[in-house]
Amino acid sequence: MGLLENKVAIVTGAGSGIGAASAHRFAVEGAAVVAVDIREGKAAEVAEAIVAAGGHAISLGANVAEPDDVAAMVDETVKRLGGVDVLFSNAGTIRLGTATELSVEDWDLVMAVNVRSVFLGAKFAVPAMRERGGGSIINTASVSGLHGDGGAIVYAASKAAVINLTRAMSTDHAAEGIRVNAICPGTIETPPVKRMMQEEAALQVNLAAHSMGRLGQPEEIAAAAVWLASDESSFVTGEHLVVDGGLHSRSPLGRLADPRPKNMR
């Protein structure tokens, strides 16, 4: 019997990377999975692969920064699968730049996708979880939210907000049997990271920054998400679980090496 048997789990940003790996792992552990992505076709591909492997999954297209989309996401999940037990608010984006380089539009976009979406997910999922007697909300933060990364100020700020939002929501909903936790990945080999690491020098610097000498895999974050989603973590709430391969949080200059190719700086 899987760790998530008879649970219904929504995974946002499920079209690729950590979200796709988590959707697959949740299904292996017995959950009925709702794969959600703004790229509806990508979400559908993930759901179809889960079903082909013998799991239970559906897909939905949604912009998780928009209230109507998130409300519809939860309503459709309840309608088709009977309820919500797990919400993995994983969708995110990144825009690089210092305070002088970053546009106001990019600041607003990252804050909407990375932070507003977490608020909206909880806003609409918590009432559904109450109906089930409790649940687990997991938010994707980042080690950048713990120490800040130069050259990525809005990403670092948004992930710090996710960590504190997680803490606050965990206090609000603990008495309802709803646990709220965050995962802080290090550098994971997702499609955006692979693009940023195309320059060999940037890749080598970032490999060296991890004590384990490698970047993480999406499946390793999925394993942490399964634990937080399951009853195995029943006494854990308001925490941020660091999964970073021993990433050195700060270089002697107080910041990690800029991962951007030179032509992106």
Low-confidence stretches: 250-265
Full CATH superfamily name: NAD(P)-binding Rossmann-like Domain
- Overall pLDDT level: 91
Number of helices: 9
Strand percentage, roughly?
A: 5-15%
Most strands sheet: 7 strands, parallel
N-to-C SSE string, H for helix and E for strand: EHEHEHEHEHHEHHHE
Rg, rounded, reads 18 Å
- The number of domains is 1
Give the beta-strand count. Answer: 7
Sequence of strands across the biggest β-sheet: 3-2-1-4-5-6-7
- Name of the level-1 CATH class: Alpha Beta
Q: Give the overall shape, derived from the CA principal axes.
A: globular
Using the 3D structure, state the CATH architecture. Answer: 3-Layer(aba) Sandwich
CATH fold field value: Rossmann fold
Structural class: alpha/beta
